[in-house]
Write a structure and sequence with these properties.
Blueprint: E1 2-6, H1 10-21, E2 28-32, H2 35-44, E3 50-53, E4 56-57, E5 60-61, H3 62-72, E6 78-82, H4 87-95, E7 100-103, H5 108-119, H6 132-138, H7 175-184, H8 190-197, H9 201-215, H10 220-230, H11 237-244
Parallel strand pairs: 1-2, 1-3, 3-6, 6-7
Antiparallel strand pairs: 4-5
Length: 248
């Protein structure tokens, strides 16, 4: 597994390289001191399994770099690793295509958990308030048990879900609304969802609105964040999503 780590602070870059290198066997971590260096590395060799990106770069805006890399290298998942843990930064990062957001103050176990979740096809975000229903599903629950660090070896990136989840009685979703939610978690627009589920666009809009109400959120991005946080609650709603969507 090959990881590109982008951070413009030399001491932090070296320290993070050592930490990530120690998360598992057969890990190769390449450091880049800024956006320019990262671009040069990717232009020469785009065969990376993961990019870890700091938002505070001396030669570019981290959000611009995130958007650029997601457009130019859509097959490579990007995880933001930032000193910030503001909800606005988390939401903007996920909205721009990041597959995870890890505060630098997080523990090594949390970092490993985040990388494992992303490389298993999920999205990782730190605990944050996303609405009463979503928060209630994950509030006061411990983090799931961290798998063996060797589990990162050979982990495969999966951007597609194997099948739509079923049930989700806790949210009161209908089977069709559950299918729509599965499509939302893949960032598919309404027109594509309508075509794949053989529905009208207006019907899809109605289902999307119902899903957002059930999760007590106001946008697609917030829905993704809410489900991601639920997935961190062992045995809870998100865990059922994970198993049924091929994440568990």
């Amino acid at each position: 597994m090959k990881v590109l780590l982008i951070d413009d602070h030399p001491l932090i870059l070296v320290a993070l390289q050592q930490v990530i290198q120690g998360l598992g066997d057969h890990l190769t971590v390449i450091g880049a001191s800024g956006a320019r260096s990262a671009r040069e590395i990717l232009q020469k060799d785009a065969e990376f399994d993961l990019v870890l990106l700091d938002l505070q770069l001396g030669d570019a805006d981290g959000f611009d770099v995130l958007s650029e890399f997601r457009n130019n290298y859509p097959a490579i998942p990007v995880v933001v690793l930032s000193a910030s843990d503001r909800s606005s930064d988390v939401i903007r990062s996920i909205d721009l295509g990041a597959m995870g957001f890890v505060p630098k103050r997080a523990s090594n176990d949390t970092l490993f958990e985040a990388l494992h979740m992303v490389m298993s096809g999920g999205i990782y975000v730190p605990p944050m308030s996303m609405g009463s229903h979503a928060a209630a599903a994950s509030q006061h629950r411990p983090l799931p048990e961290v798998p063996s660090r060797n589990a990162l070896h050979g982990a495969a990136w999966r951007s597609d879900f194997q099948r739509a989840p079923a049930g989700l009685e806790a949210l009161g979703l209908t089977p069709r609304q559950t299918e729509v939610l599965a499509q939302l978690l893949q960032a598919k627009p309404n027109k594509l969802i309508a075509r794949e589920l053989n529905l009208s666009v207006e019907t899809v809009k109605d289902h999307v609105a119902a899903v957002l109400r059930a999760l007590d959120v106001n946008s697609r991005t917030q829905a993704v964040l809410a489900v991601s946080q639920m997935s961190q609650a062992p045995g809870g709603l998100g865990a059922r999503y994970g198993r049924q969507l091929g994440r568990g």
